[in-house]
Design a protein that fits this description.
359 residues
Length: 359
């Protein structure tokens, strides 16, 4: 039993050590953020009213940096990525407030023709499910070469050479033969590698990976994480990794943004977040992660349910589920409090203006 416990600890510790090994990646350039999202609010029109999916979301990504966005289902992670990519459904979604600045260019005011210059070329998206992200009626070669022929005006020969180069980069053997195959001829892990290759074909500056390891087993997950680190080392691409797996975060991220009920509640360096989580929701997330060396009875679920985003609460969205909630938490939204190490949190527990008698 002790050997199994040691194996679990070794696996977890290896992931954490990988996060601190900066030799595998170039240092992020913090002089000028590549992407800045400021006070972004998005709502969806439904038959039941407006769903406030994002509420004043703020984040930034430097060149060569990996930012992980974590949170439970429905927290707004994928909507954030869709807003950055310009993929929000025009009929039902509306950006009501805020800005998205990419390489000095405001994205929220772009027209569809201007978006097509950026989508897939400057910003690329790895979709959530590798089993459905590929077109089953087209060969892998056709899907790989479409982007460079459209954006970079490559000839058929140039596009094929580039596709072979990308397949080699993501670890696909016999790339010449693979180009003629269809998606159903590949395993789930190989499909994920192909989806990554498609996203990298045009050498984007920013790569958004929306839960890229969710449908994969643990061994393939480790291979995909290693692939991300290797790609970033070679190309210097900035990565936004959207996930609910904190083990994945420990293994690849430089910084972490925690989202809850459509808001960013905490952002910190990955080491600081795991060692000293500031927000009660972040602490609850970390406490809910199962470990092989931990008895089942000690697993702590987060009690309660997320708030109704048809009518978001006036105060802290986590107050109803928080064991540290005060009266002010239910009445007034917590301001942003700056923490050491360029971190910040939205929580009254860290704000000096919170009434002491309520603590």
């Amino acid at each position: 039993m002790n050997r199994h416990a040691d194996l679990a600890n070794t696996t977890t510790n290896t992931a954490v050590r990988t996060a601190v090994d900066t030799s595998v990646r170039p240092e992020p350039d913090d002089s000028q953020p590549l992407l800045t999202v400021r006070d972004l609010s998005v709502r969806f029109r439904t038959y039941g009213g407006h769903v406030h999916a994002l509420r004043q979301v703020c984040l930034h990504v430097a060149r060569g940096e990996t930012l992980a966005i974590v949170g439970e289902s429905g927290s707004g992670k994928s909507v954030t990525s869709q807003a950055i990519m310009g993929l929000l459904p025009a009929r039902t979604a509306q950006i009501t407030e805020g800005s998205i600045t990419f390489d000095g260019r405001e994205l929220t005011t772009l027209k569809p023709t201007q978006w097509r210059e950026i989508q897939g070329r400057r910003i690329a998206l790895i979709f959530q499910d590798p089993m459905t992200a590929l077109n089953p009626t087209l060969t892998i070669g056709e899907q790989l070469t479409e982007g460079v022929r459209r954006h970079l005006k490559y000839t058929a020969k140039q596009a094929q050479d580039r596709a072979i180069q990308m397949l080699e980069l993501v670890g696909i053997s016999s790339p010449h033969e693979r180009l003629r195959q269809f998606p159903h001829e590949f395993s789930g892990g190989m499909r994920q590698r192909i989806v990554i290759a498609i996203a990298l074909m045009c050498e984007p500056d920013l790569l958004i990976a929306d839960e890229p390891t969710t449908a994969l087993d643990v061994t393939i997950q480790a291979q995909i994480l290693t692939l991300f680190r290797d790609i970033q080392k070679r190309t210097g691409v900035a990565i936004i990794l959207i996930t609910h797996d904190l083990g994945v975060v420990a293994g690849i991220a430089d910084r972490v943004t925690v989202m809850y009920a459509g808001q960013c509640v905490e952002t910190a360096n990955v080491h600081a977040l795991f060692a000293r989580p500031a927000h009660p929701y972040t602490r609850a997330l970390l406490a809910s992660v199962p470990r092989l060396d931990m008895p089942a009875a000690s697993l702590k679920a987060i009690a309660g349910q997320p708030p109704d985003l048809f009518a978001p609460p006036a105060g802290c969205a986590f107050a109803a589920r928080c064991g540290h909630a005060m009266r002010v938490c239910c009445q007034v939204a917590p301001p942003q409090t700056t923490l050491p190490g360029q971190a910040w949190v939205h929580c009254w527990l860290h704000d000096a203006r919170a009434p002491v008698k309520q603590r």
